[in-house]
Specification:
Elements (H helix, E strand, L loop, with lengths): L12 E7 L5 H14 L4 H21 L5 E9 L2 E8 L19 H8 L2 E7 L2 E9 L7
């Protein structure tokens, strides 16, 4: 795993500079789950964080292969948790209804169905893709 800076905990904010690699994604899923649990997330919040981190980092690997360095950030915002990945591509993420016969292309759509909200915005040389969900309790339908 290539981690440029260690985890930081600053009033409910955790962040890492990393190089997204397929072989490291399961480890980042585990780290995200542990952080969300530490921030008070219930089992559903932990699993959603794990799924979302996997999707966002896989997208960096797939779509930003020329420079897979990114920043993963997990923040508690009141009764919500926000997970974001800043990458070095300005390519807009797509979350259209997927072609169910295709082998890929469902990740962001599924994440959008499970998270309370998701989005992206320009950030520095690239963009930030994020999703937000409740710390505990019912998810948005």
């Amino acid at each position: 795993m290539s981690v440029v800076a260690p985890i930081t905990d600053e009033q409910g904010v955790y962040g890492w500079q990393l190089t997204a690699r397929v072989r490291d994604i399961e480890r980042w899923r585990a780290i995200a789950g542990a952080v969300v649990s530490r921030l008070g997330g219930d089992a559903e919040a932990v699993e959603l964080a794990r799924l979302g981190v996997s999707e966002l980092l896989c997208n960096v690997v797939k779509h930003v292969a020329h420079d897979p360095r990114c920043r993963l950030k997990i923040t508690r915002e009141g009764e919500r948790i926000r997970v974001s990945v800043n990458d070095r591509s300005s390519r807009e993420p797509k979350a259209a209804v997927p072609d169910w016969s295709s082998e890929s292309g469902r990740g962001l759509w599924l994440l959008g169905q499970m998270a309370e909200e998701w989005g992206y915005s320009p950030a520095g040389e690239g963009k930030s893709v994020w999703f937000r969900f409740p710390v505990a309790g019912q998810r948005a339908t």
